[in-house]
């Protein structure tokens, strides 16, 4: 069993397709198929079932996937240690970020750091807060920056920035011009980000001030991105809590409006694994971000 075989297995498992995995790895499809076949043949275990055009992990494959990822994470830590011992600031920083952070806050820091440290490669994957935290815990990311809250005991959480949410609606919405209190919140029809989103979680912490919980609201639609939520608000009678930064372009264009409801500031949090080695490249980025 080689590290290359493990990388290929993980890529196929995540892509559910040999051809897509080959493209992501810059390998030929026969090479990817051969690597998977070698793993299965050497250990006498079928790792994938073919369901139509998709590949699905077998029970053996599902058990093997987290172990393969753990081995690859340890190999990456060993590579980073050797880079550190060389005394050179080089390497890679893998960042996971929740959507608002990834789109509106973090890119300017990435651009400035990339200019200052050309020997360090930065990569960023976006998702919601729960997905970003899971990436750090699994070793798929060196750090995460999120707008949601997390209290996992293996995560070190530090505040690195702030933003504010607003309640947004279409220009002609019937709640426009009215102070928004408990009755209006119950009266409204809502579109929300999905569970696990930092925006949704932060808004849920505000509702008890009005004697409400998220389950009390008339949520008709859940969508997986800020852009999708804003488009739904613009074209319907629904309202939504959204970052002021995310809403700003549509608000400036006169497509949506901010309702009269003050929401408290929220933190952007840096997430780090408490027990994993931090390379010189990662430490350099942390110094820059927190400096």
Automatic annotation (TrEMBL):
It holds the Pfam family HTH_1. It comes from the Bacteria. InterPro entries: LysR_HTH_N (IPR000847), LysR_subst-bd (IPR005119), WH-like_DNA-bd_sf (IPR036388), WH_DNA-bd_sf (IPR036390). Gene3D superfamilies: 3.40.190.290, Winged helix-like DNA-binding domain superfamily/Winged helix DNA-binding domain. The keyword Nucleus does not apply. Keywords: DNA-binding, Transcription, Transcription regulation. One of its GO terms (molecular function) is transcription cis-regulatory region binding. The keyword NAD does not apply. Residues 1-58 form the HTH lysR-type domain. Belongs to the LysR transcriptional regulatory family. This is DNA-binding transcriptional regulator, LysR family. It comes from Rhizorhabdus histidinilytica.
